[in-house]
Amino acid sequence: MSLYKRGDLWWVKLYRDGIPIYKSTKKTDRREAQRLHDIWAGELRQDTFVANADRVRYEELVEDLIRHYQNTEGRKLVEVNTRLKHLNPFFRGTRAARIDVSLVSKYVEQRKAKGAANGTINRELGLLTRLFTLALENRQLTQVPVVRKLKEPPPRQGFFEHTQFEAVRRLLPLDLQVAVTVAYTLGWRTQSEVLTLRHHCLDLEAETLRLDPGTTKNDDGRLVYLTPELKTLLSTQSERVKALERKLKRIIPWLFPHLPGAHISRRLVGTQRKDFRKAWATACKQAGVAGAIRHDFRRTAVRNMVNGGVPERVAMKITGHRTRSVFDRYHIVSPADLKEASRKMAAR
Q1: How much is the pTM?
Q2: Residue 14 phi, psi (nearest 5)
Q3: Is residue 127 a contact partner of residue 83, using CB atoms and an 8 Å limit?
Q4: What is the mean pLDDT of residues 76-99?
């Protein structure tokens, strides 16, 4: 290894496996250059030296990250791309070594100015951190920048009492009444798990409903046995779809397709229903529970199962919760539960 001057700048000549590596210190002062020389020499001895770490750009790290998830399927690319949609415009063209606490703080300020919630920003910062840790593993960089997460509000505590659920359900179209009953009973995610159900997932003879592997958030499949109410409702829904198939003279794979209606375009009839936000918001407002969200069904289902005596490990299997910590977060205690506990204590 040697230190030499080229123009006004000091350069270092290093050897790895007998092959010379030339690297600029970008310093005009010899003592500062010597300090970098000693650092790089130490990294070379520990086999952690990266010759071109200061040239790697953000876009290169993104390409490697996407390739990593494509190969490992450790996270759905839809989720990754949703977060990159906000990260890319800000960091694109930036050298990775220049992304530090200050630049990350500016990103956070920009996202806050656009109305992004702290939790949303934290998920994006988590992906940014993964971007750098992967680059460190691939020996593209020598360090990961400090990324400070924001304080998030406590988890939402909303859930549905049965009377509230009934009030909202009766105001929805018949097919959506079935969809929300599945979500309310089983704790399945309405948009990504209930509405995506295909006809083959329902077996009325075996009285089962399943989610195929790869169709859930954690990619695990699920199989549940139907309650009498769900069996009746899903049987009726299945007949609706079959009647529509006969009318359109084609196969409809979805269990909850768009059905003919006053506000449904003819071209949508028979296609997959992907959401029903407007119908939901209207029903909630008319039922006197404006602002209620469908994700509250997951908390409600967990609470109802546990209070009904279903073993927690079985309830976790039905709802699709992998970890006990997340399951516990969804097990909400309501004022009615507390009153019942008081009644039981008084009875003793």
Answers
A1: 0.62
A2: -115, 160
A3: yes
A4: 89
